[in-house]
Amino acid sequence: MLxxxxxxxxxxxxxxxxxxxxxxxxxxxxxxSRSAPAGTExxxxxALNDAAGLRRALEGVTSVIHLAxxxxxxxxxxxxxxxxxxxxDGTVALLDAGVAAGIRDFVFVSTVKAVGEVSHxxxxxRTPPAPADPYGRTKLAAEEAVRAAAxxxxxxxxxxxxxxxxxxxxxxxxxxxFQLVDRGLxxxxxxxRNQRSLLxxxxxxxxxxxxxxxxxGNDLFFVSDGxxxxxxxxxxxxxxxxxRPARLVPVPxxxxxxxxxxxxxxxxxxxxxPFTSVNLDRVVGSLAVDSSKLSTAVGFRPPYTLDxxxxxxxxxxxxxxAA
Length: 323
Hints:
Elements: E1 2-4, H1 9-20, E2 26-30, E3 41-45, H2 51-57, E4 63-66, H3 80-101, E5 105-111, H4 134-153, E6 159-162, E7 164-166, H5 172-183, E8 198-200, H6 201-213, E9 220-222, H7 231-242, H8 253-267, H9 277-284, H10 292-298, H11 306-321
Parallel strand pairs: 1-2, 1-4, 2-3, 4-5, 5-6, 6-9, 7-8
Helix pairs in contact: 1-6, 3-4, 5-7, 7-11, 8-9
């Protein structure tokens, strides 16, 4: 199997998961980036438009797991082109090269952001997409390219939309939440009554394997740990895993929204201000998905509960993530 983005958080876990199942893994990595996961065959390329590099990487490959993506937050109006170059054009180039090489499977790893940022009820695969940023828009366009290629060439092409993923090696928002809980600072989130879907990286790897192995996996699926959780309950679960107290203060959400609107005004002249309405919604807003379609189609059951996923995550955080 060829795994793109293999030097990243998700890619490394997928590569290790496939190796543990006795499968040969070729790791597509950007030339000059971090080394490929141990046990994989490295396949360095200049970029996803490196036609010669892709041909070499795909020799003898029947299945592709495509995780490589441009996920950075935009810094200006012209940044959408950078997202499109990697997330759309790069995916199309990989698809074309894969079809030419005779691949059978193409698993595309997408995101809930292809649908939007906040859900008022759990999204299903039938929910009309309304992506709110360049990352979401370009991932949705890439989904459409994958589906079109699947129909045109008869590919087995599962598309997996992921919520926030946590686990050893995590970064960004998931890691910051662990850091906040670990520092023991009072968090003004005790009055929040939202619903957020999460995904432990071990459950994600299991979903990848399951959809590749089942004919019925050739579809679009949300993937999650199961039932969504409120932010205060998540903080309590993280605190238990870390052996720390959960210091939750019940500040009214309406009051926090007023403060966030002030932050919005300041952000117009100081873009690095963190407390804005967009950032607040990522904490107090709901973003829940219904992943039952995946269970019905291929019999997938997440092998890990939330607590079972948080335990190794906390162990990793204590040894490496807190640095």
